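Entry: SpoIIE family protein phosphatase
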Amino acid sequence: MPPAGDSLPPVDEVLAAVATGLWRWDNATGIVTLDAEAARLLGLPPHARITTEAAVRSRFHPVDWNEIHGIVQLAVAEDTLAEARLRIMDEQGRRVLRTVRSRTRPIVHEEANTYELIGTLQEVGEPAPGAAARAPVTGDWRRSREAFLLDAGRALAEARSTEEVLRVAAGLSMPGFSPDGLAVFGARADRLTVVGHHGHHGFGDDDPLASMPLDTEYPATEVLRTGRAVYLSSPEEYRRRYPTTWPLVSRFERRSWAFLPLTVAGRTMGAWMAAFTYPVSFTPDERSVLTTVARMLAQALSRAGVAESERELTDGLQRSMLPMLGPEIPGMSVAARYVPTGGGLQVGGDWYDVIPLPSGRIAFVIGDVQGHDVRAAGLMGQLRIALRAYASEGHRPDAVLSRATRFLSGVMDGTAYGSTDSREGPDSRDSRDSRDEMAGDPRFATCLYVEADPTTGVLEIARAGHPEPVIRMSDGTVLQRPIAGGLPLGIDPDADYPTTRLVLDAGETMLICTDGLIETGGHDLETGWARIRDVLERDGHEAGLYETESYEARPHETAPYEAQPHETKPYEAQPHETKPYEAQAADSDSLEALADALVQAVHGPSSHHTTGPLADRREDDIAVLLLRRTHRPEQSARTRRTMLTIAQAEPERVAGARSHLRSLLHDWADPDQVDSAVLLVSEMITNVLVHTDGDALLVAEVTGEEGTRRLRVEVSDSSDDLPHKRRPGELASSGRGLVLMELLAHRWGVDPRGEGKSIWFELYEESGSPGETAA
């Protein structure tokens, strides 16, 4: 009997009448349940059955199986229908029997993390002309989509900031459809925020859409609350579903919208809106592309956010640990630079400090803790505070470093002790492992401590395994000064650190730095110092800091690596005459320019073409401190002066004195005179070490204009016995010192002092042969 007019036939009769089958697919067990019509459409005998996923999969075209897998995963994530066109193959997989359309609804079991698909199968005809390019059963659109996703993924992976990620997202051209309005939303407290937008003119911070409660009926807030995408294919659908916010959105004149969650590690961190000026139906393939882009966008934004947070953290850490140079120091100009280039957090163990002392002097400290990680930065902070405390107590440079090495040694010994919690458990085991790792990774630190008297220019320096300072004289000559030193801090708690005394004359500049400035770019100590010296000399000439003609850089001559003996000042320093404020300001500007030039030489474009000889180019943090003794412009000095002490117990330092004198005379016109001066200095120092019981003090000074300069060298000792000229025999091993002096020097003499004596000689650049001899 036909059904009554007011009732519907049974569902199975209706489905059979329209040739529609039912199927159920259990993802957990892999069991597929089919009714008779569904079995027929799949090419199986036409009766209800329970079969396996493998049996059903063998009936699908392989390309279509890959397509439906992605569509199902998208539907599960969005809680929407999964719709796809599928080609059914014969038993041999050689011939297409028919094309069916599948519409299924996923039922997710969240507690078991599984799902079931329940839906229909219905035979459909061939796609209409022009629609094949958009159908999932064809490969053209799929291949263009895959190429687009690869390009988009690569571009988003290379973005390093939130602004750059948004710029890349705005420039994406999706296959077949492209949004012309984009916005990324986030949440702060209980309100919606706009992270960035593109193509929405007038969508500013004061817009009502930029800050609304999360319970507002708006697609972005719904996505943030539920973590599910919202697709709006027409303005009418938008107005129907979100009538409250539609008046705020209508002014942008868009026709379709997609709001997708930005999810990272299971947490919805924001929402991405893609708006279109033309209608978009949001087919499963289009939703799949948008979802994939949203996932990549979420990952890129997450990486950029972490990187920006790390930069903000490390910048704040650096600002808190690196000092301000403070008020102007009368008689001295100071410039400093810190460039983090080491670990992933861009923070390491390099530091510098400027410490006012109770005596009125100023302490300049630079150092480098081993490593490029957070632990190195932490140790650097502790050590810097300890050094500042010891210096502020009024200790001398050697005492400051001696206390600092005991402090760091104590910190290293104490790293094996952590929490006092004795309870066993995973956390306590991790804590013990961390403590054991720190105990097996001792750290040390290099340091250079300079106590400066701004009035006299006297510098008292103690060195703990750190690179030696470089002095640029007022005429541009650059010398690496040998400084007595000891072991790096933290190695031996009982180590001693002798003090070296120098005088910084008017117009001279001292450079102290960490090894990052020297060795960055594949350089070693020798080639790195040569590069730095060239910058110092060239920058001085270009800035007009002294008035000499340009000359070619000479081959680098390195000072001996071993620590040098104690140096003393041969004369009383004169009171410093400060210059007008305008002149000192100009001098400070030139020092700042010099600091920039040094960093640019290491990190600028030219540095990539002047790499060093080392194969393993390890980058390092850079700390630079420049100290200049200021002077009046009209008193631009034309004097080079250097001092060096050779201890009685270290005769091997004579070679260092010869090398030092050659560096001082690098641009002397007559190389024979340079050889003569080196020979005479070697004889004078050797005589002091052999015939007296004291140390030899060498003072060398070059004065005058280039081409007509005078070299005066004095070697002083504490003995009152005056030398006598002898006439040694042919086989004698000594007694020729004064004879050589008389033959090679233009003038020479012996001056008694209150305690000891001074032997000196002079050479004149304008004359090639010895002149008048003074005894």
